[in-house]
DNA sequence: GATGAATGAGATTTCATTCAT
DNA sequence: TATGAATGAAATCTCATTCAT
């Protein structure tokens, strides 16, 4: 973030080596993992000189930081926009799920890197960016809390926890794709968007007339 | 070569250095992360000589492998047992959620290590153990599929996906605790067990008379 | 990956660190032996940083491989040239002996390393380079075979064995010098060249009129 | 040498673990090389406990020392015996060559170990035992010197050098066998004994009436 | 901006040797 | 004698980072 940025030159003219490096890093991190790859792997993949990586970024860490922040901030912006609109929760959650799934669809490597290297990295990147990551959880939690206040969502399920469950469900779908455990493809991605929202909002159960115990709360 | 196992001698007699090392590794991995800690940190924490780690384990990796497999297999066994019993799905899922949450409650470090270092590590341990990990997902998926066949769960939500969503929701709660984003304590743990099952089975929504679109399927 | 080679720049200009390392390695290997020396010893001797050895060579082994091949290939070339010329065998063998003895005279450390660490190392370097080593034996064997065909050498002594005996005699002289068992110095080196050829070609015996048994073959 | 020796018990009764270890060491050293094998490899090969190696030998080195000395001393004894007898040099040299070749024939692994790990190891074992090794060279040198004094051998070729050439020729034949460069088998071994003596004593050349230059000495 | 040689602090792993039993 | 767990001092190799050009 802190480093030199090209002068927003003529559209496609210059190759913008900084971007080249960033994109190469995504591929390399996704392929080998952050810890297993060397800075030279990034440079090689980008087709630039070793030292250039250090010209644009202060360290190997900073490359991943940049990658993460770029994407996560786009997501935060999307969530805020959605939140500002007068939509039903279900639609809001649907928009968020769509955004994340589409992000994976559009650039699976980048999402793999974020999920694998940052989001759960409690002792490194995840910890560094916990504030930024949390913002997303909090925004979602806010949506849910509001829905509860409006009587659309059950009040017994704490919004913070519900938000985590919702986000965790989506991330796990991506994890399933990343590990090759779930089928991929346009169709599956579309269905997944619906599915995760339907599961969390509507529940997996069919609606037997009365289901008292279920709604009555924990033991 | 590796893992000479003591002959299950007289209960508490010998200190069982192998166990000592394993337990120390959990603490160290949880505190510093697998990549950031050195083998000497494990040895120091266990109070044994450097080389002894290599006497019992072939490599640093093998220590984590052992830790993961020990715990994951206990879980698999639990899931299989639960699955074999004639219980309603909700109770089965509840049992699984309970087991995982209790595991965290009982040994947060170990669960932190498993979730942070193995479960999402697509380029290292996660990949190595994907077969074992998947077994859990598949067993849960099987439960859900059966519930669908019995008409208890909606048939439109693919069981495999639903299983991932359910497991992901739980893991994310643990992630929340690990990162200090969610409140911990006996009470919260108990509530979380109910909450995650209620969310996934019953849904977050209160039951408005009709909600056609919701159940009708994805766009 | 390994062995970036400088562009054969202006003669003496740059110090050529790669060469520096190679030359230092010869001294260190000769002084301490390959197994006893550490890579840091080489770096220290060369006056370069530890890592630079690995910048130019993939491993400690590769340093010795390079050293051996550089020298052995020069010898192979010499032998081939000699072989191509229309000289009497005795002169050819003399040329080979001269080359080897001169090599020792000129750079005793390098020859010590080759003889001590490679030529007899049946389980490591010798085995790796056996093909290259053998070429020399075969070329010499070819010379001897031709001499036998021409009637200059006795036909009863298999050329292959004779070649080994000849080469072994020379190498043992070097071994004698290396261990300090034989006197060294210009004069001795010159004499040795003659001596080894005279021994193998003319034999140690004075020529008693008849020596039937000797020539008649083995029992 | 300094270590415990069994009480010369009933012939074949006890397995004599010390001998077991020594014999196992020969196989292991021959197979993997001294530096590449671990003490545990020796113990495993011998079928004894790790620690027992250290009960009988002070160190890994001492095992090889013992192996070398056992054999080399037998050879020294043989040479001395031969030297004491009133035989023609050619027969004496023949006896030595026979002994060495037979030694290889009888126990190729042991001779491989001696030649590969000791005889040329200028910075380790060779250096340690140089005195013992030299004795053999000196004894042979003495035989040759005597033959020169008697007029049987040419006086111009220094005995010390000639001895080295002779011994080197034999050792190189063994080296050829060790590396698989020369054909082995009873027949070849027998022939080799004759061949090496014939080469060194009689020379490779047929006897052209006059060969003045050859005998006249080095340039 | 761009290059890649040079640096050197670690980290893993190995294994000879010791020692309690 | 016999065992093998325990020790800990190296040694190789890696690689992020620096820097002169």
Rg measurement of chain A, Å: 20 Å
CATH topology of the largest domain in chain A: Tetracycline Repressor, domain 2
> How is the quaternary structure best described?
homotetramer
Most extensive protein-chain contact, per-chain counts? A-B, 72 and 72 residues
Shape of chain A: elongated
Q: Please name the CATH architecture of the largest domain in chain A.
A: Orthogonal Bundle
Low-confidence stretches of chain A: 209-219
- Helical content of chain A stands at 55-70%
Description:
The structure is a homotetramer of 219-residue chains. Chain A is mainly α and 219 residues long. Chain A folds into two domains: 12-58, Arc Repressor Mutant, subunit A (Orthogonal Bundle), CATH 1.10.10.60; 59-204, Tetracycline Repressor, domain 2 (Orthogonal Bundle). Chain A has eleven helices and no strands. Chain A is elongated and about 60 Å long. Chains in contact: A-B, C-D. Chains A and B meet through helix 6, helix 8, helix 9 and helix 10 of A and helix 6, helix 8, helix 9 and helix 10 of B. Chain A binds a DNA duplex (21 and 21 nucleotides) through helix 2 and helix 3.
